[in-house]
Amino acid sequence: MNSRVIVFVALLCATGLCVLLRGSMPEFPQLQISRCSCDKCLTEEDPWLMQHLNKSVQPFLSADYSLPEDAFNWWKRLQLESRDYSTYRTTVERLFQMFPPSPDLIESSPDRCRTCAVVGNSGNLRQSHYGPLIDFHDVVIRINKGHTKGYEADVGTKTTHRIMYPESAMDLDDSTHLVLFAFKIKDLEWLIKAFSTGFFGRSYAPIKSTIKANKDLVMILNPAFMKYVHEMWLKKKGRYPSTGFMTLALSMHMCDEINVFGFGADSDGNWYHYFGAVNKNLRTGPHPGGQEYDILQQLHKAHKIHFYNGWQ
Ligand SMILES: *[C@@H]1O[C@H](CO)[C@@H](O)[C@H](O)[C@H]1NC(C)=O
Fold this sequence. Notes:
CATH architecture: Alpha-Beta Complex
CATH superfamily: Glycosyl transferase family 29
Subunit structure: Homodimer; disulfide-linked. Homodimer formation occurs in the endoplasmic reticulum.
Keywords: Disulfide bond, Glycoprotein, Glycosyltransferase, Golgi apparatus, Lipid metabolism, Membrane, Secreted, Signal, Signal-anchor, Transferase, Transmembrane, Transmembrane helix
Pfam family, one: Glyco_transf_29
Membrane topology: Single-pass type II membrane protein
Family: Belongs to the glycosyltransferase 29 family.
CATH class: Alpha Beta
Number of strands: 7
Order of helices and strands: HHHHHEHEHEEHEHHEHE
Bound molecules: 2-acetamido-2-deoxy-beta-D-glucopyranose
């Protein structure tokens, strides 16, 4: 973008004229001020994207954020939470006595190009040789037990963020952010106890009682963000969004350029994990697999994200 144009617009704004200019913006599309220094930024100018992306929604909880009660009531039904809003609030207060009160995020800037690699666990990563490409991103987000050891050539070695919930938890190295997706109050309690006394409760699957990870890099997904993904992105289809899809939406609130790896089936239509056995009958659970995949394809076609499917 021409720096003279920026100076010109800045001067107009300083004189209050840009209010008038805004109305005539469509005639001068090149006058849009760039939000990042990538070749293409994931901006909100695209009408389809604007119907889905709401940059005002806080992706992570922080000490000074208050969850709207309607979002709590939506969230508590996901895994049949029976405790009330005030229990939620006291638990969150305890969380922030232990973990950073505000999330560690790279702020957007016209001088910066924040790149995200969102790495799912699909078997289509096998033999992909995407490793070096994935590691080249500023932010590398991995999901649940998608480990790198033994698969470096295809999935890379770097992990800046790992998405987990208690039932999928694993130990992390000192430089990786633990990003908790909590589906019930017990998941928040787990986080506190796993870093202190140990957690000995039960869930639908066995839970790790302690965890090794950097306490100062813990981030917790905002339940209202989950609701937003369900409503704005999926138009309320399915019970709630899959972890993979919520991670993709999250990346759009963290980065200017997004590349997606390890999502979807392999070239024969089979769904399995790159680190597991080939399972020809794996279903995607209660999630709107088709709808989510369609949106991924739409974003890819509109050049909003790039989707690497491993076999093109
Ligand atoms: C975007 O999110 C903010 C914060 O949650 C909310 O107040 C606003 O109404 C949302 N906008 C749209 C268009 O949904």
